[in-house]
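name: query_chain
kind: protein
chains: 1
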Amino acid sequence: MSDDNDDAYCLIDATRPPRAEGPPYAECVLCRKPTEYPESYKGITMCPVCEWQEAQRTACSG
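structure:
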């Protein structure tokens, strides 16, 4: 199996919000700690720890 087709197995959208230049930062939707994203961003934002943990939970195995 080639590495070219690895993306075909992952159906998770990996779109990320834009990084903030500075405060105020958006709160993490899971733990309420500050994220790296601007407070004005509308959508789901997670801190680096929660992002990593979520990635581990939803990672494709194979």
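note: The chain has a mean pLDDT of 76.
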